From TrEMBL:
TM region(s), chain numbering: 7-30, 45-65, 77-98, 104-125
Assigned keywords, A-Z: Membrane, Transmembrane, Transmembrane helix
Membrane found in the keyword field: yes
Pfam families per the UniProt record, alphabetical: DUF4728
Family matches, as InterPro entries: DUF4728
Domain of life: Eukaryota
Protein name: Uncharacterized protein LOC131803391
Length: 166
């Protein structure tokens, strides 16, 4: 799969994931605030809600950046996801022994999948930043391949044609 399409897919998956999580955190905040019997504070939910909303907007920005081949639109997603991976890894190393084995497996799977997707989109961002990847050229190559693609072409310059054979 092309890295541009991969960025679209990851961006759409992130938008859906973080949109659903913000809805869940909003419901938890409402439930905590309405039910006075609960002793729990709603401040962790508010922090998670803010982070979810930020990631929704950054994921939408990444989709636009992939469509327009703008590295500055993809950079916030790469930075925030990398920051989240570092925090998640430290959390796993510090508190990993206290969680059940299935939750530990979920953490490890999530960190591994996020690492692969973040690295791939980082390479895409780096290619766009260095000018290696041009979306318009890439689409033109995919839709209009050059003629005689499978034949081997010999390239001659004008001085080779006029030179006498020795």
């Amino acid at each position: 799969m092309d890295r541009c399409r991969f960025a679209f897919v990851i961006g759409i998956i992130n938008v859906i994931y973080y949109a659903v999580s913000t809805i869940v955190f909003t419901a938890m905040i409402i439930k905590t605030e309405l039910d006075k019997k609960l002793v729990a504070s709603s401040s962790p939910y508010i922090l998670s809600l803010c982070c979810g909303l930020i990631m929704v907007s950054v994921s939408i920005l990444m989709i636009v950046g992939a469509a327009k081949s703008r590295h500055s639109f993809i950079a916030p997603w790469v930075l925030l996801t990398g920051f989240g991976l570092v925090i998640g890894t430290f959390y796993l190393l510090i508190f990993g022994y206290t969680v059940p084995i299935w939750e530990l497996f979920n953490y490890i799977t999530f960190i591994a999948s996020q690492s692969v997707s973040c690295y791939s989109i980082y390479l895409f961002w780096k290619d766009i930043k260095n000018g290696v990847y041009n979306n318009d050229l890439h689409i033109a190559e995919l839709s209009n391949p050059p003629p005689y693609v499978h034949s081997s072409a010999t390239i001659r310059t004008s001085y080779e044609i006029n030179d006498p054979v020795l």
